Amino acid sequence: MLTVNLGPLTLAVPHLLLIGSLLLATLSGWWVGRASGRNPEQQLFRLLLVALLVARLAFVASYFEHYQGELWKVVDIRDGGFIAWPGVIAALLLGGWQAWRDRALRQPLGVALTVGVLSWGLTTLAWQALEQGTRLPELTLRDSRGAPVELQDYAGKPLVINLWATWCPPCRREMPVLAEAQARESALTFLFVNQGEGPGEIRRFLDSGGLGLQNVLLDSDARLGQQVGSMALPTTLFYDAKGRQVGNHLGELSRASLARALENLKEGSQP
């Protein structure tokens, strides 16, 4: 499962885990700090912002070459470009310093940070372990001419599957990035699985954008999205040569976030 529907809202599981961990940390800090009248809620939110900022800066520094010429994209966090561990370390160090300065805050803030980091880390690891055990679905799709295509036929080398639609703005924005990667990465197979649209509509979009994509497939009933547990577009899935899912990305891919995902795919595909 990659997304969770809450009424009209669709939330990515990683976002939901982060929100849930923040809530647990806040409640724990409030409970422990009742006797002293010290609620670390404000400090926790500030530490979360610091962690996110440092995690973003670490990602940008690692993949800065992909931002050259488009520096404004450094602040465009829609690509999900974060490296978590530097942010966690920064938040823990700053939280420890704040607790050392304020004796009454030590226990509630310390407990809150411990609960928050452990709950987020353990639930994230458990979710990733479950998702990475997922196999390539057995599903029949159709190509642009209407001929049936078995998804399993593409197993045998690392595979990138992009779920998209022409009406989806982030899908349209990321398509040139994926097209460049398909032309460059000959060792990988890219599949562009359209969700719920017809061949005429898809062809008009590709022609208008000058996108010479290979392996455009039609999923008229959006069954692939349902089977992998994602109701959000775009969704990009990464499978190794044995058909095991080794990664996923919800939302728009930038050149930098795609570069990181492909690095992980290649590492995960090594024997």
Structural account:
β3 (140-143) and β4 form a beta hairpin. The chain starts with a strand and ends with a helix. A seven-stranded mixed β-sheet has the order 4-3-7-6-5-8-9, sandwiched between helices. Helix content is 51%, strand content 16%. It is built from eight helices and nine strands. The protein is α+β, with helices and mostly antiparallel strands. The protein folds into two domains: 10-132, no CATH class; 140-269, Glutaredoxin (3-Layer(aba) Sandwich). α1 packs antiparallel against α2 (41-62) and α1 packs antiparallel against α4 (103-132). It is elongated. The chain has helices spanning 13-32, 41-62, 84-101, 103-132, 169-184, 199-209, 223-228, 255-269, and strands at 3-6, 9-12, 140-143, 148-150, 159-164, 189-195, 216-219, 235-239, 245-250.
Outline of the structure:
With about 270 residues, the protein is α+β, with helices and mostly antiparallel strands. About 50% of the residues lie in helices and about 15% in strands.
